[in-house]
Design a protein that fits this description.
alpha+beta, globular, Aminopeptidase, about 350 residues
Length: about 350
Amino acid sequence: MNARRTNNDIIRLPDAPDVPGLVFRRFRGESDYPAMVEVLQGSKGADQIDEVDTLEAVASSYAHLVNSDPFQDMVIAEVHGQMVGYNRVMWRQELDGKRLYIHFGFLVPEWRGRGIGGAMVRHSERRLLQIAAGHPSDGPKFLQSNAYDKTQAGLVALLERAGYVPERYFYDMLRPDLENIPEAPMPPGLEVRPVGPESYRAVWEAEVEAFRDHWGYIPPTEEDYLAWREHPNFDPSLWKVAWDGDEVAGMVLNFIDHHENARRNRRRGYTEDICVRRPWRGRGLARSLIVQSLRMHKALGMTEAALGVDTQNPNGALHLYQSVGFRPVKRQVLYRKPLV
């Protein structure tokens, strides 16, 4: 993503705090990526968020944005020429027609508590109102953001003061060791096979189908598929995909984030994108694939495993994950308020 503007990119916020040297500006393209990585690492480290963002990951993400133009939809905060935070907005439409106008941001801890984060959030809301004004009034519209309720108390307070209310809760779950993994045989007639490039699309489409009946489902785009394919943690050699002949029955799309492990000084594997298509549900397939994934991670030298879950998942995912040794360690709250 090349730079499109380097001059006249100052954003004048009507409620900007009086901080010496503070300037808000627009996104300038790829040249901003290294400073964005520094902001992400500082912000997420302070908020005890596990994910570690690399330059490669940021570039990959911004190459495949959907319904978000960073040159129009970002605000960057600088103090004396150094980036200290940024916010970006996007919008998506759920399968039921509901439109979500989403904002999120990051601010390094040294500059929190001075009104910078609040000014960026309010600017993002104004931008989302502009975007929403160009959309039909054929269904409900909501502003949306999210925060970890324990480690992002400042952001939680900011959102609640702005009128947001909790809509849904999600757990980060951890299996703190990979010992005493239970037995869980595969259902008869199904087998796990390696996935080659010729099957990537089939796996993607099976996952999309399996998640259609989940809360908040948003139909993915072709750009989403490309982002999935090109993500730095895309590693089909770690996947556990169950086949019934030529049909994908279910999957766990495992990955290991080596940068995160090195930075956090741990050996963690992720068991994510766990799903089973409708015809194969209720036979113990998800449990078997998770158990196989845990054994694989242990064989690869990992000492713990993690995943995320919707606490109100309609298919009993939370109970399943607890039954194979995962426990909640953090809670993330999805906040919404009606757009008016």
